[in-house]
Amino acid sequence: MLPQAASPCLVEPELASVQIAGLSRGDLPVRLVGSEVWVPAAALRANEANYGAGRATCDGEEYVRLSPALNVQYDPSELTLTVQAAPALLAGGELDFAGTFGDPLPSLPAFSVSGRVDVQRPAGEPLAGLLGVGASLQSGRWRAGADATLSGTLTGEARSLRLGGSLSAEAVLDDVWTVGGVVRLGPGGLGSGFSGLEVRARSPEGTLVPELALELPLEAVVTLLYEERQIARFRAPAGRFVLRNLPLTPEGELLVFIQDERGTRLVTLPLSPTQVRLREGAFAVRAQAGLETGRPVLRASGAYGLSGALTVQGQAELRAEEQSGAASLAGPLGPGRGRVGGAVVRSAATGVTASAQLGYAVPLGPVNAVADLSLPVAPLRAPSVSLGLSYADLRAQASLTGSYDFALREGAVRLSGSYRLTPEWTLQGQGSYRTSGGYGLGLGLTYRLPNGWVLGTGAAADRPAPPDSGGAGGSLSVRGVAFSARLGEHEVALTGPGPWGVRYHHTGVWPLSVQADQTGFWAAQGELGLTWTGGRLLRGVPAEGASLLVRTGVPVLAVRVSGGNVQRADAQGDLFFTGLPAGGSVVLSVDAASLSFEVHVTDSEQPLQLGRAGVSFYDWSANFQRRRWVRFVWPDGSAAAYAVVTVDGRTYSADLDGNVLLDRRLAPGLAVTLRSEDGSRRCTLALTAAEEQRCPALEELQGS
Questions:
Q1: Contact of 57 with 101, CB cutoff 8 Å
Q2: Among candidates 226, 191, 194, which has minimal Cα distance to 210?
Q3: Residue 225: closest CA among 567, 617, 560
Q4: Which in 31, 175, 399, 443 has the greatest CB count within 10 A?
Q5: Which pTM value belongs to this model?
């Protein structure tokens, strides 16, 4: 309870336009007593009770004295009272993502086969490229796979074919340890890629968790997006709202959309190495031992969370001809986060070199800034610096990066961005420049049609850097996309000039890309695969990471995973998603824009915790009710307009034409009772699968 006070009642109220936290509260009587400001209690919302520091009742109306901690401005000439939001005074709250997504989903065994092609034929030359097939088996916490490839010049007199392949296996031992190995084979034995063993470990509670505090002046709906995937969407109370145990990795950026009564704003959190933060005791390590390019190699990396929000990271690589190591320590520094580290490289060719690194990341209002400095100390020479600035809101996005090496006296800068002119038109641009003389420019414009088509046009020009600082540089080259059209997973583009060509690109379960130009050049890349899991043969192959089989029971239902591309269910209502984060968190969401009126959805979103291995399975069918239109008519064939229909204990109301939306799960043969709106007619019939149901005969009503 706020303390009682009587003094405000001794002064005459003044009518003023009151605005609190950016929202108008109307024209209200305001009482000013020295430095104290009293407003009617009705001006404050229930969750703004802490804005008050006392109360009094004057002439039967309750008043509240505004807290001296508030920024209050009264303009006697304009008769306005403005109160700035103070989230620190409000109750606020927190959301701990640990456990939010529930227990890990059960996994299913899966067997997959796949094929891929990547070929090209320059004008007047033979066909060259790669053909490959593969197979894999997953069961429980282990996975094994094999693939074979045929590459080289595939046609012509100079045909030269090379056979390659690989064998791989991986086992998830528990919630911490994962071990695996791969052997790559080529024409001369071990191929050019890595062959050997790998061990990974991470603390079960998660590793990277930058605690994020949101200052919310009003109750808001908050949406989190990471790498174009929706992590969560929730309603948060006004005040300081803290997000804990965010399921992220140490790269990319987190986009936080905050929607309240004043509109929508965006908070961007870049996740650079400088900003990596582990909870105290959390860790992540990775080690590899084997052969690469036929030579032994050993590499390891890891991170560990210390007290005081400090994080230590390190990595090392050992080869016969070269050894290297690096370590860094990151922690809070002023309003941002700083990092200090060093790196050492020992090479048979260059001897020992060492450098020191400094980094700092800080939010500057709507702009996020990251700066890094590298200082060679052995041998000592001038440093190199880099700076990155990023900005994003609902209409505009921009990124500026620059670097300069004082020893080489060479620098580069790159600017890119986009701006949504209208809901349909978006302008994009980019530019780059090197002090050595090379530069590039690009400009594009897209238009989104109401039917989903996205049309675009653009152009780009670049000039390569000169061979040396004294050269004249290369000639200006103009290239671009004359026209492009995209609908869903399909995109067609006309490219040119120099030379003119056409390109088709299909993204989805079976990606395909085909291109050709006026010189006679053509190329094609494609991939296809089938997976047997959950008693079904599905399109797609489990890729790196986790896979998810979702059972909805609704054919062609459109569903997104964590804000990604829409995928439609097959004829049985199943969806198969691949390439998801193993052991990570995802959010299923129904695409409401394409939802049929005959499908009722209980919850449009569902957070899930994926398993660490295998194909995770989630039965979402209970969330959907498929319905069908049924027309009821009386024995004389007239529509049962506005009749009351009762079936299986559920009651429905017919429209003017006697139509009713019934649950498709209602089995034929169930008794249906039909009663007219005025109660004068009634009949009972057995439900059938037909679209029209006719009453066999009217029943005698009591009293008639």
A1: no
A2: 226
A3: 560
A4: 31
A5: 0.66
Question: Is 282 a member of any domain?
Answer: no
Strand ranges inside 90-228, DSSP E: 93-96, 107-108, 110-121, 128-139, 142-153, 160-172, 177-186, 189-190, 194-202, 212-216, 220-226
Mean pLDDT of 634-638: 91
pLDDT, tens digit, 9 for 90 and up, residues 658-679: 999 888 888 888 999 999 988 8
Do 534 and 620 lie in a common domain?
yes
**Which residues have CB under 8 Å from 298's CB, separation 6+?**
287, 288, 289, 317, 318
Residues 646, 600 within the same domain: no
* β-strand pairing of 93-96 with 239-244: parallel
Establish whether the linkage from the previous residue to 379 is cis, with ω within 30° of 0. yes
Helix, strand or coil, per DSSP, at residue 50: helix
How far CA 16 is from CA of 20, 45, 84, 262, in Å, comes to 12, 18, 16, 21
Q: How far apart are CA 49 and CA 253, in angstroms?
A: 35
* CB-CB neighbours of 174 under 10 Å: 10
Show the tokens assigned to 466.
Answer: 């000169």
CA distances from 553 to 441, 568, 571, 620 (A): 50, 12, 9, 8
Q: What is the pLDDT of residue 471?
A: 45
Q: Which residues contact 649 (CB under 8 A, 6 or more apart)?
A: none
pLDDT at site 44: 92
**Cα gap 697→186, rounded to integer Å:** 81
Question: Whole domain around residue 537: which residue ranges?
Answer: 529-625
What mean pLDDT is predicted for residues 106-127?
90
Decide: helix, strand or coil at residue 504: strand
**Same domain as 635, residue 584:** no
Here the tokens at position 498 are: 């120099």
Residue 157's pLDDT is what?
A: 76
One-letter identity of residue 523: A
- Per the structure, the count of domains in the chain is 4
Would you state the pLDDT for residue 245?
65
Of 625, 660, 678, which residue is a domain's last?
A: 625
Residue pointed to by tokens 């701006």:
419
Taking the CA atoms of 13, 19, 20 and 24 in sequence, report the sign of the dihedral they define.
positive
Which DSSP state fits 192? S
Query: How many C-beta atoms surround the C-beta of residue 136 within 10 A?
Result: 20
Given 578, 600, 625, the domain boundary residue is 625
Structure tokens at 472: 């004249």
Distance between CA 164 and CA 187 in Å, rounded?
Answer: 7
Confidence of residue 376 (pLDDT cuts 50, 70, 90): very high
| 611 in the same domain as 650 | no
Indicate whether 202 belongs to any domain.
Answer: no
Torsion angle in degrees (nearest 10) through CA of 627, 629, 634, 635: -100
Residue 623 CA to chain centroid, in angstroms?
A: 23
Q: How far apart are the first and last CA of the chain?
A: 65
